[in-house]
């Protein structure tokens, strides 16, 4: 669990360090509030993503399944600023084993709610689905905007980073990969 008291003390210390007065009216409850917020936005550190898995066996279904535009909010581990966007998760079930649709979004959330790197978020989702559902393949594409690149530093608002992780058939079979990437990037479902 997150050590709330320690987080509160650290936020108070940070306010002092930046030259603020943590005892002024508007800031008095801020350390508690921020500590509570960290419990929420870093909840994935203390949850087993396997708890979010539910698998159904669906008649030897081996057709591609794409869950598109799953919104997520994460925190970049370099600056502790948000990065956010959408994840697209595509997989081909094996032996009819399909994941509950909402569970895919829960898996994305669980890995997003930690100090993260976009590349690691992308590969963790793909690896986890491979381990848990043992599908023929998984393709995960994540598109995000990083506040550390837009509100500070290089300041390039609108710059978006796209990362992908391909496993199984999506890695080995160019046609399967092209089909998935076309569905994802062309917005066939929009
Ligand atoms: N690969 C990758 N880089 C990231 C991610 N989030 C932030 N970064 C980058 O991490 C790098 C950290 O660079 P540093 O030079 O250590 O930090 P900095 O001086 O604050 O860098 P600037 O952002 O360029 O001002 C920056 O280039 C960020 O854009 C991510 O999810 N993946
Ligand atoms: Zn950053």
Automatic annotation (TrEMBL):
**Which terms does the UniProt entry file under GO BP?**
one-carbon metabolic process; tetrahydrobiopterin biosynthetic process; tetrahydrofolate biosynthetic process
Per its UniProt record, what InterPro entries does this chain match? GTP-CH-I_C/QueF, GTP-CH-I_N, GTP_CycHdrlase_I, GTP_CycHdrlase_I_CS, GTP_CycHdrlase_I_dom
**Record's keyword terms, sorted:** GTP-binding, Hydrolase, Metal-binding, Nucleotide-binding, One-carbon metabolism, Zinc
Citing just one GO molecular function, the answer is: GTP binding
Q: Which reaction does it catalyse?
A: GTP + H2O = 7,8-dihydroneopterin 3'-triphosphate + formate + H(+)
Reported EC number(s) for this entry are: 3.5.4.16
Pfam families of this UniProt entry? GTP_cyclohydroI
GTP cyclohydrolase I domain residues are 8-184
According to the UniProt record, one GO cellular component term is:
cytoplasm
Q: Which residues does Zn(2+) bind?
A: 76, 79, 148
Q: Which family does it belong to?
A: Belongs to the GTP cyclohydrolase I family.
What HAMAP family does its record include?
FolE
This chain's protein is named GTP cyclohydrolase 1
């Amino acid at each position: 669990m997150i050590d709330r008291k320690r987080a509160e003390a650290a936020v108070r210390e940070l306010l002092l360090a930046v030259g603020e007065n943590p005892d002024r009216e508007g800031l008095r409850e801020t350390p508690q509030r921020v500590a509570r917020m960290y419990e929420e936005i870093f909840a994935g550190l203390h949850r087993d993503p396997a708890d979010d898995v539910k698998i159904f066996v669906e008649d030897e279904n081996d057709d591609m399944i794409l869950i598109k535009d799953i919104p997520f909010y994460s925190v970049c581990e370099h600056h502790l600023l948000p990065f956010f966007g959408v994840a697209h998760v595509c997989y081909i079930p094996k032996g009819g084993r399909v994941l509950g649709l909402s569970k895919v979004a829960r898996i994305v959330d669980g890995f997003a709610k930690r100090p993260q790197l976009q590349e690691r978020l992308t590969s963790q989702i793909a690896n986890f689905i491979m381990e848990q559902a043992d599908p023929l393949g998984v393709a995960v594409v994540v598109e995000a905007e990083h506040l550390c690149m837009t509100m500070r530093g290089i300041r390039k608002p609108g710059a978006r980073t796209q990362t992908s992780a391909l496993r199984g058939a999506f890695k080995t079979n160019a046609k399967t990969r092209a089909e998935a990437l076309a569905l994802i990037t062309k917005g066939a479902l929009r």
